[in-house]
């Protein structure tokens, strides 16, 4: 939105052009490279129009990424940032077991960013949109006097009553995760310490900048009735599991030696004398799924996963299999 009424807001006095392209040219470019599915009215009108589907529920989530807080503009490349902006949002749809419907992208662009930079950002956004089949249905574009701010809203759907919530864990459930955890924190360690980037380091950085939302995995898990609570790991298991515990009024035991850690992270931690379990439990931005499942249902799960613990009565989170050094984990 650009306000052109001088009595209404200050943007009248600010040149809103970004790079060489103006706002409308940029929107036009975005519109021409992101087409909406046939039955949906996407970019180009005052609102997107999405038909309701009987028997389904709509999932909606918004996340902001702020320069200096969520990413360092000097280090991230625009393609990665475009990818990640969509990925972290669709991870929330995956966490509910939802199927993506579409996304909305609002950004405030500092004038220092070139048209080429924005084009590459959109390329990354488009690559992940194509891979997972979610159209970009609208958004907003403004200039920023200072930093880059990106806000993505995502829509998804599940069959009525099928979404998996944080309050659904039951005592006796097994606690499971998809993939490996701690890689993203490892990648961030490479970046922050400006380590030499060989194969392992690059792999870890890609896990940090190009995370994969576990959309098909989440959808498949909702097919199994015994899969109860689910969420995505954005702040580390140690922190995220507490959300499930609090919402479900349960406790948990985690066997720290069962936590799945990639060979790349193991090697990296050995080389640099880092605590891999600390990265795996306290590091964020893995965007893997954390879920609880009844023991009878667990062997029906075809999605690759690792059992790392059990839901218990009470409110405590207990770490098993750790030596005394890990007591401190409880404070995270
Ligand atoms: P309005 O002033 O009515 O909000 P805009 O000029 O902001 O309209 O937007 C025109 C159209 O372009 C709308 O359909 C809007 O959703 C879409 N749009 C604007 N910015 C973006 C963007 N960054 N990404 C995708 N669609 C966008
Ligand atoms: Mg607008």
Main sheet summary: 6 strands, mixed
Radius of gyration: 21 Å
Strand percentage, roughly?
A: 15-25%
Shape: globular
* SSE pattern: HEHEHEEEHHHEHEHHEHEE
The tally of strands reads: 10
Physical arrangement of strands within the biggest beta sheet: 6-8-5-9-7-10
Secondary-structure-derived class: alpha+beta
Are any ligands bound, and if so which? Answer: adenosine-5'-diphosphate, magnesium ion
Mean pLDDT: 90
Q: Which parts are unreliable, with pLDDT below 50 for 5 consecutive residues or more?
A: 2-17, 324-332
Number of helices: 10
Give the N-to-C terminal Cα separation. 41 Å
Helical percentage: 25-40%
Features:
disordered C terminus; binds magnesium ion; 4-stranded mixed β-sheet; binds adenosine-5'-diphosphate; alpha+beta; disordered N terminus; 6-stranded mixed β-sheet
Please provide a written account of the structure.
By secondary structure, this protein is an alpha+beta fold. Helix content is 33%, strand content 23%. The protein is built from 10 helices and 10 strands. It has helices at 23-33, 78-96, 115-132, 183-192, 199-209, 215-221, 237-248, 263-271, 276-282, 295-298, and strands spanning 56-66, 99-110, 136-144, 149-159, 174-178, 227-232, 251-255, 289-293, 305-312, 317-320. It has a 6-stranded mixed beta sheet, sandwiched between helices. It has a 4-stranded mixed beta sheet with strand order 1-4-2-3.
